[in-house]
Amino acid sequence: MVKALGILDIVAAIVLLTVSVPGIPQGLVIVTVTLICLKGFIFIFDIASIFDVGAGILLLLSLFITLPFLLLLVFACLLGVKGILSLAA
After folding, report:
1. What is the pTM of this model?
2. Could you give the C-alpha distances from 1 to 5, 17, 31, 73, 89, in angstroms and in order?
């Protein structure tokens, strides 16, 4: 179970990095937002889950407005590191 959640973090990080590419399907972004926010709300008392909810909000906003790439990169790095660490555990 922990490994599946780690893979979800890594997928969300990749989607965060590629959300500004015009060819990315909006359905993929919406599914990722749903899963990452759901995971964040389930484990809401963990400080790392706040990054999940924040990344979900950023992904949702990125469907409507163009966000700075540096902001997306920071959240993608946080999620990526969190995902890699959960896979290593």
Report:
1. 0.88
2. 6, 25, 19, 26, 12
Task: Give the DSSP per-residue string, 3-65.
Answer: HHHHHHHHHHHHHHHHTTSTTS-HHHHHHHHHHHHHHHHHTTTSHHHHHHHHHHHHHHHHTTS
Residue-wise pLDDT for 11-63, tens only, equals: 999 999 998 888 888 899 999 999 999 998 888 888 888 888 989 999 999 98
Which residues, 6+ apart, have CB-to-CB distance to 50 below 8 Å?
40
Q: Where are the domains of the chain?
A: 2-86
Q: Which residue has the tokens 């959960």?
A: 86
Tokens of 4: 């599946």
